[in-house]
Amino acid sequence: MTLNTFILIFLIIPLISSSSSMNRVKSLKLELTNETDSLQWELDLAEMAGYALEANALIKFEVNTTEPITFSLNKCMDMILTKDRPFQTVTLFFGVPWLQYFVKDSTEKCLHGYSELTLEMHFGSKNTSGFVEFSEVVFAPSHLKELQPSIVPIGGHGQVVQTFSMGTLIKNAMFQRNTTTLVAIYNYTDVDPILVGFGKCGVQPSTFDFVGGRPFLIRGELLDHLYRLSTLYCHQDPYEYTLEVSISAPTAPLDGAIAFELLAYQTPNEVWGYIKALITILAIIVAVALIKIAVSMKNEPLEDKKSGEDNNLMAREPETEMVEFHRIEE
């Protein structure tokens, strides 16, 4: 190889690299013109997300339309993110866990539904124009002070909405997922469940029934979803690792608190052992309360004293009922 050939190769390599960098996709934009009914847009955000990760940038999702619309971001017939309340403008920022998901998404195939990431938009009866755009931007999220311990107090009527930072708790749950489980416990003893939703920045929350005293396990795909959701940003909520928790009770006023705790375990059986222990403790508390009520009722003075025969009959009646109860169990 001559010196001139070596110099030529040395000059061409940076040019190719520079040309590749200049031609990379920094934005995807869809123009909307007199749209009605619905529209699906197949997305490939892997390249943009990969470059954004290298550049310490995020992806901005912006919608601006002349008429109210709704949207959902779907993969394999599952809704990853949705905004089902009609709107005309929205700006969201996808953090690092989202970018990692977009890169990983490009290699995963679906058994059912579209393998591609799909943005589904629904329009009203009026013709709708505007644009939808994904673009690479620099965005620095803010931070809220973490709750120590991680307890969300609730009280009042109707629906209560709380924004709180899970911070270290949810990060540790993600990075120690093979040896820990994130558990949420509603400490109120009402028999009726409450409805708890996890959302952020106006997107449709994922809702679950919480029963007082019963642990709710946050792991697997649910943990992945909440971790990504905590790194979704908007101008109203630019905070990292925060979630908006909406709590409502259909029948009774809200009372108590929801506590989040990270429990260490080696096998799922140990978690189940913890749950059984907690249920046993609750059963003992209820049993003690019933015994106290029974003792207090027994110690109350009788208003009308009956004959000895009536008293003997009343004393025998519980024995008959107990025999029948045991027969039913057998």
UniProtKB/TrEMBL annotation:
Q: Which domain of life is it from?
A: Eukaryota
Q: Where are the transmembrane segments?
A: 271-295
What is the protein name given in its UniProt record?
Uncharacterized protein
Origin organism of this chain?
Caenorhabditis remanei
What are the UniProt keywords, alphabetically? Membrane, Signal, Transmembrane, Transmembrane helix
> For this UniProt entry, which residues form the secretion signal?
1-18
